Amino acid sequence: MAVPKHQRLLNLIIGLSSTRHRLTRDQIRDTIEGYEPLPHGASEEEVRKAEQSFERMFERDKKELRELGVPVETVEDPVHGDEIGYRIRPAEAAMPALDLTAAELAVLGVATDYWRGAVLGSDATQAVAKLASSAEHGPRVELPFAALPAVGNDAVAALVEAVADRQTVRFEYSSSSSGAGTRTIEPWRVVLRAGVAYVIGFDRDREAARTFRVQRIGGAVTPVGEPGAYDIPDEIPLGALAESGDVATARVAVRPESGHALRRRGTAAGADGGWDLYDVEYAHADALVAEVLALAGGARIVSPAGLAKAVTKAATAALEVERG
Amino acid sequence: MAEQATDRLVRMLGILTYVEKHGDTPFAELAEHFGVSVAQVRADLNALWVASEPGDSWFPIDFSADAYEADIAALVRNDGVSQVRLSPREAVALVGALSTMGAAGALPEAGTQVLAKLREALAEPVTVIGDDHVAPEIRESLLEAMRRYRLAEVEYVDAQDRRSTRVVDPHRLVVIDGHAYLECFCRRAEDYRVLRLDRIASVTVLDGAVEHPPTDTAGFTLTPAFRATVRIARSGRWALEDMPGVVIEDAEEDVIATFDVADAAFVAGRLLSVAPHLRSVTPNRLVDELRRQAQSVLDVQR
Question: Can you tell me the distance from the alpha carbon of B5 to that of B7, in angstroms, rounded to the nearest whole number?
Answer without folding.
Answer: 6
